[in-house]
Amino acid sequence: xxxxxxxxxxxxxxxxxxxxxxxxxxxxxxxxxxxxxxxxxxxxxxxxxxxxxxxxxxxxxxxxxxxxxxxxxxxxxxxxxxxxxxxxxxxxxxxxxxxxxxxxxxxxxxxxxxxxxxxxxxxxxxxxxxxxxxxxxxxxxxxxxxxxxxxxxxxxxxxxxxxxxxxxxxxxx
Length: 173
Description:
Blueprint: E1 8-17, E2 22-27, E3 40-44, E4 50-61, E5 64-69, H1 75-78, E6 85-88, H2 103-106, E7 110-112, E8 118-126, E9 134-139, E10 142-147, E11 153-157, E12 162-165, H3 168-171
Parallel strand pairs: 7-12
Antiparallel strand pairs: 1-2, 1-6, 2-5, 3-4, 4-5, 7-8, 8-9, 9-10, 11-12
């Protein structure tokens, strides 16, 4: 059985939509075009596991998506999905070009300066609308915001679980 925590969130159910068990979904993906071709997703199962659900129909609705899941045929059947994240396996994600990363890949990375001092770990990645996402790094000195841009980040080592920044003084806020 797959662990729900190991899957990648692509949407959150806002509420039941319509009378036939459809669900209104807020996309959490930077690829909302994935929804029309979505045939399955995972929802939480007891004990931290993941339960597969079949997607039988999908259509856009006011910047969101309406999904029809197999077996959800009434408002009452759809109601338990309210607020639930829909997730997919990492193997279903597109391969990104070199130097690009999915947010979930960056969370938890150890952040180090050029001298190997640990500044903390990436707690979150914020899309601020600027030219680069911002890493929220939490460590012993508190919270630091670091733009995910060449001027601040020297290297991202996913295999090694670390991210190297140019200099600690260059990133303190």
